[in-house]
Amino acid sequence: MRASFIESFDPCCSCPQGKILGFLDYSYVLPIEMHGKQWNFEVSVDQAAQGLGVGKKLLQHLLVNAQAEKIVKISLRVLGTNPNAIGFYEHFGFQQEGHYKKEFFLNGRWVDEYQYALYYPYLNE
What we know:
The protein is an alpha+beta fold. It has two helices and six strands, in the order βββαβαββ. It has helices spanning 54-68, 83-91; strands at 2-7, 20-28, 38-45, 73-79, 95-106, 109-119. Strands 1-2-3-4-6-5 form a six-stranded mixed β-sheet, covered by helices on one side. Strand 3, helix 1 (54-68) and strand 4 form a beta-alpha-beta unit. The longest helix is centred in the middle third of the chain and has 15 residues, at 54-68. The protein is globular and about 40 Å long.
């Protein structure tokens, strides 16, 4: 398991210096050889820091490391109630692979979850 954090990097931002603005966690799907070229990840950005480039910086960090490790598939799951995140991932080229209906019961209602993935065809060597 690998994790990365971003603390305030813009002195003009409204977030206090030293506050963790975002979090990235990524790991192999399973620690066995047949899953050795796939990562799952999750990313979270503090609400006050959304729109400041924190998520973009974290995702770029993930993609650089994936390329260095010759990872072919990167996947994540995202709640259907988070259209901003879905749009963000699609902007980076992630495509929907799965739809899990009524996956979570949140705030008195069922919420769907979607699986998204990004493939690196140039790493299929």
